[in-house]
Amino acid sequence: MRKNASGIDNSKQRIENKNNDLDLYLKALNSAYSGIIITDNLQYDNPIIYCNKAFETISGYAHDEIIGHNCRFLQAQDRSQAERSMIKESIERGEECKIEIRNYRKDGTLFWNELFISPVKNDEGQVTHFIGVQNDISDRKKAEHDLREEKSHVELKIQQRTKELQDKESFLSSIIETVRESLLVLDSNYIVLSANRHFLNSFKVTTEETVGNLLFDLGNQQWDISSLKEMLTRILPTNNPVIDYEVDHIFPHIGRKVMLLNAYRIEFEGQYKDRILIAIEDITEKKEQDRRKDDFLSIASHELKTPLTTIKGLFQILQRLSAENIDPKYVSTLDKITAYIDRLNLLISKLLDTSKIQSGNLELHMDPFEIDKTIQDAVESMRLAAPDSDIHLTGNTGSIVEGDELQIIQVLNNLLSNAIKYSPESKKVEVSIHRVANFVKISVRDYGMGINYQDRLKIFERFFRVSHIQKKFPGLGIGLYVSHEIILHHKGTLWVESEPGEGSTFNFTLPIVINK
Asked: Is pTM, for the whole model, over 0.70?
């Protein structure tokens, strides 16, 4: 008995040592200066299942926005690089690879990436994972480029730069005066150097009251807005622009204004060094219009819901009262009317969901459920509803997620309906479910018309519809918006991968709470 007890103690000690070693390895990876990712080569599209803190910093994306993606998402629309093919070939051969490639951060800025890819093999020699080590070499690339330019174009650069500075001085003045937006130029101490006529007219002030004064002291300190100060203090130290920053403030004489601010640091040489350009767009009326539109949608949807429910109930009574020898055309007509009532009811429900999301009143009933079974049931229901479509389901995670099961089914039904609707030439739809790190990833792939890059940027916006699609297929452009917001409320992400003529793949992730 002592020997057995001693063996158990030794096993426990070994397990504890392994756990300590694993924690040490993870801490070491997160302390590394280089960005490190691990991809699962046994899963479709080789998704990222781990990334360290340095990779998040380099790419600008958060951990949950990275997991589940293929690492090619960093190239955005810059897809013609030969290095992409080199990566693909190395992965297919299961070999190491070292390249330098152009990547783009979440905010769209370019950075050069020195990438090392190494395969990880199991005991049978099968490549199960790839490890990618990434270094930001933008500074080195910029230095190399500048050195080449200096060697070959010194005289030309001096002449061009001189002319450029002269042009910018006059050009900037012209822009400030002619743009139909309020524009301010500040120095590094937030003193107003210039204000265009639109600003003066909009805020009922004069040039003498504005130029040469501290922004926060203008008027009776009406611009002493804490959120504005916070925004501006982030620009000069970091050199990062501020995009579409919303400020809601009550001004004397002109009342409440909702403004959209964009601010940039100007780094011209000479007298324009360290300037801040602020563009102010008045969206007060637009906000009010959106509010009235949302109120209308909410009221109209509620008002339509009650009589529609009554009408459906009356038609169900008529269907039950139909005699056995009644004209089949009469029965068929009742069935068609009921189907159209159901379609109208679904549309009203989507409008109600949109209204709830905008008002922040979307109701979620969060409970644990088996995601595999939910996806299987939803796919089977869609097969029955669309018997002409060829829907394939692959994958199994054995995971339990926490969320509103009906809302998740609504998301999947919407993605499946779109895949069928926008693929008139191909009936094949592929649904897959996999586990990636601590998330479940569900993908819906069609072989339809595809979506171009510009439309992909807006496809999850409310009421947005692709221009050439809306002419052929009816709809309001709210299904993907509602789906995106539902997944966001579940702490997951929803995104699309698509090319014109090559179909689309919609993916979404949900955090796992229990693994069986």
From this structure: no
